[in-house]
Design goal:
single chain; mainly alpha
Length: 201
Amino acid sequence: MKAAVVSVVALATVAMLVSGTAAQAPAPAPAPAPAAAAPGAPAPTAPASTKIGYIDVQRVLARSAAGVAAREQLEKERATIQKDMDGRRVELEKLRDELEKKGALMTPDARREKQEQFERKRRDAARAADDYQKELEKKEGVLLQKVLQEVGGVIEKVGKEKNYYMIVEKRNAGVLYASNDADLTDEVIRAYDRDAGGKKK
């Protein structure tokens, strides 16, 4: 699948706040009191940790079961289209060879008719190729958008379970550096495959 086509999917939709565990502000300083705090008095609240993770959506699409299935479906469509276009190409080559080898022996009307036939079929093939390309891109967008919508729910679930404050998409967010520990891609793929497998039962 062409990477350019895949990029038409809006990857930013999966960058989201996934937990309500926003950092808490420190508790207000207590009123002036003796140096020694009263026994049993609660200590000031420390700021909550803010874990931020990222995922690589392209990797999810390439390695998840649903992403692989979507690509295989598109490849089947592409193979069918390629078979039709190969048949058109063979037909055009046959007409061209006939014109080159036998054109001089044809009457002017027969040669003109054969030439018009060749040009007509050539234009039809060009239009078909363009239509097929648009059709494939449309189907690709629909399939991958479906996968991405499902992945969005999995990302939210993983984020909440692991108490992440935010999960971003690595490429769209322009992440320049991140620890490997912040990469949740493989975990999201495993959770996505588990969810997809459960739905099939």
